[in-house]
Amino acid sequence: MDDEAVQPGEQRLTRRNERPDGRVHALSKGIGVNADGTCASVTYEDVVVRVDQGWRISRRKVLARRVPLKR
């Protein structure tokens, strides 16, 4: 198996806010390990709506961390 093809990662829903119109605003954070062993993180700001097939993301804003945190 190619090491770069499968990398560990995780995404967690950290906050949600249900609106009177049925939409849900959700904040999720994800972390991944790159092939070189470094880590990367991302934050998703989603608007989720319920449709006949279940819940679907209707809008997503991706906030990638571009500068590493200082120690």
Automatic annotation (TrEMBL):
The lineage of its organism: Bacteria, Bacillati, Actinomycetota, Actinomycetes, Streptosporangiales. SUPFAM superfamilies: NTF2-like (SSF54427). This is SnoaL-like domain-containing protein. Residues 12-24 have a biased composition (Basic and acidic residues). InterPro entries: NTF2-like_dom_sf. Residues 1-24 are annotated as: Disordered. Gene3D superfamilies: 3.10.450.50.
